[in-house]
Sequence to fold (187 residues):
Amino acid sequence: MIIERLSREHRNIETLLAVLERELEIFDRGDRPDYEVIRAVISYFELYPEMYHHPLEELVFAKLKRRDPAAAAKIGNLTLEHQKGTERLRRVAQAVDYVLANREILRQNVDKVVRDFIESERRHIMMEDRDFFPAALKALEPQDWTEIASASINHEDPLFSEAAEETFDTLRARILQLEQEAEAGRH
Fold:
């Protein structure tokens, strides 16, 4: 089920946002966060939502626009929302690079950029879970879901999709493992 998959991905994203938030709190205290964890989270966001999650959501949204234009209008411009998220992520990556390169950047600016990304992502996910997914489930016909499923398979090379999934599973596990180690090291 497509919506179930998207919802599951939202939960994974929320886990990673919580990890990022915890590292930010360490940074805010003036301690050194685990930059390996932060970098891993950033690269996950650069890859997964961009390549898989957002394109799939946008296929669903395109169908919703045809089936229930009013519901789609209430959700707004999903593609633009996703582009803004990508832009915020780019700012996070840049801020982290600045810190690691010992370039001049104010701590509160780093905090602001990272917090802005976390909060915007959470708001976006909440809106999709609350408004977009239920509207799609209500309005779309079985044939729509079939078409979405086949379109989303077509735009992934089946040769690489499983390997790609494994890469992300490995990365996700690594992020959580790094975070647990970092947690243990802080006590």
Remarks:
- Residues 2-186 form one domain.
- The radius of gyration is 18 Å.
- The first helix runs from residue 2 to 28.
